[in-house]
Design brief:
Glutaredoxin; 5-stranded mixed β-sheet; Thioredoxin domain-containing protein; 26 helices; Ssp411; 6-hairpin_glycosidase_sf; alpha+beta; 4-stranded mixed β-sheet; globular; 721 residues; single chain
Length: 721
Amino acid sequence: MAGRLQGEASAYLRQHAGNPVDWWPFGDEAFSEARRRNVPVFISVGYAACHWCHVMAHESFEDPVTAAYLNENFVSIKVDREERPDVDAVYMAATQAMTGQGGWPMSVFTLPDGRTFYAGTYFPPRPVQGMPSFRDVLEAVASAWKDRPGEVRESAAQLAAHLASAQQGNRRLLGPVLDTGLDTDLDPGDAAADGTAAQHVLSAAVETLAGLEDRQLGGFGGAPKFPPSTVLRFLLAHAAAGGSTAAEAGALADRTLGAMARSALYDQLEGGFARYTVDRRWAVPHFEKMLYDNVQLLSLYAQWARTALGEGDRRLALRVTRETADWMIRRLRVEEGGFASSLDADTLIQGHRVEGGTYVWTPEQMREVLDPEHADAVLGLLDLESGNMAAHGGTGSTLHFGRVLSAAEEELWLRHRPSLAAARNLRPQPERDDKVVAGWNGLAVAALASAAVVLSDAGEAGEAGRILRAAGDAASYLLRVHRTGPTLRRVSHDGRARGIEGLLEDYAGVAEGLFTLYAATGDEHWYTEAESLVLAAENRFLTAGWLQDTAVRPNELVNAQGTQAAADPLDGPTPSGAALFAGVLLTYSAYSGSLRHRALAQSLLKHVEVVGAQAPQAAGWAMSVLQFLLDGPRELAVAGTDAAAVAELLRAARDAGGPGLVIASRIAAPGSAGAVFETRVPLLEERDPGGAPAVAYLCRGMVCRRPVSSAAELQALITGE
């Protein structure tokens, strides 16, 4: 074998470098080879932390007989979906169109020009319950290619036409940018858009989510249960904004955030969330831990720590915020400063991959570790079923509470938890995918900066400082390694960026992180870098009035979709690039005063009118941005000569503010005035403190109220608007 995958950044690709399958990375060379040999292409898509990807690899790709058949009859391409979400999205759409479902590993067969003619997901080594074996599939596809080539090409043409029609649906949803906008009431000049059609859509979305809620156990819908991160972001924003459905939105968010934090989805020993649970009760997770899940959830729990009504919920939210930030820094931070993509679902134990092998316990194992005097009491806190993993092919039980702990019970758990964590650390640990993804790391910067601010406001200055430094290190890594001039690379490994160009979600995600870091620190370097990324993304991804997720699209993907793709406005496990971009455009417009960028952000939210009330789970991030738009943005400029006085005003504003508050701050040298007070942030221009310890200006559209200098006055201004 040529060993083409050995030098790849992706741990997933490197995991397959030793297979007897002659794998190629996705690219022109592989498709050219298929054309030269006149054979179909087999594309296998997965990711490093995927349990069933490992299963199929062991059963089929490590099998010499299966590999020999693949090598003789196909050109085989291995794709990391995290590295190439553009490739994954195209072929997932094809798979779902053909089979009605999708998932990973994804197994796709294409013509040498990239068009799909057959697709599926996991195939077993032998026929099971009506599912053909992988070898049966390979033989059928090879036979069709040789004996019925006309039918194969016709099938590919029909599927490409179907996908092209679906792309027109995306175009209709998102529409041309800088068009008439959502509603005439949402003209950029009208900052207060209460009572508009958009407000009704958001209220209707809350009611739809209320109808979908699992009221008893939290979440929306039944098993499997994924953390509904973008939806929770919207619900918290809607609750903070006030209005007729605000209380209901807050209650929906509270129940799900509380349920997840007490469940086995959350690692009760050291923090961090698993990808999802297979059951309704949040008790049996698939154990992979993804950076993109944890950064979204960290931001949510940091926000919940500030807004939760009950003392117990606030205490829980602060603990989850602290623990998840700490887990990210200890377990995912790479040496150079960025954050790795994931921890595997499986642990290698005595030569065998065991899903969740690091994490599950028997009561006997726990008693061996715990202080005998308190073992019964600690075990009594847990909803420790007798081997709840047995029904899912494993042994032991996951650790979760399943109920609200009292303050005394929580103290008991926290006192004895370190001994369990120390014992678990002696076990074999899951592998880590050290691939650094730009967009996810941008969201990590935002989450860590938000967590640091919340913990600082709660009196945990030491921990907050450590977390904020980690956010700054990650931001510096992204700018140093991933950025070259105006362009951004999507992935890096071992401190070196690879050739994959950044997508819209990467530019917008990094800008989101830098804006949030600026708001947390007042360091204008982060603001200017965020500004340059927003402007670069505008130039790179807006073409002839349409937004695209990718600036450079391989011909094979254009062929597979039958058209040049528009940006997908709908969320998946991560926020859509379009929604992320709308959010950073709106933030930038608030800092800069640019009405054009506000209007551009507004034009990217038109799909919420169509999707919000009917399928809110697909538009959570966009709905939170729309809530931001409706609530403001309100701009807050705080300047002064006394760092403590400035910090007091900022803390008061954060405690009082809703989802539409954008914060800029500057500490001037004592005695400075006029031109001496220099800034690169337009919102701070002409906001000279005049030598005062601290003054705050609350503005809308750069038109400001009279400055105030006390926390009470500022909170009265904010809450009185």
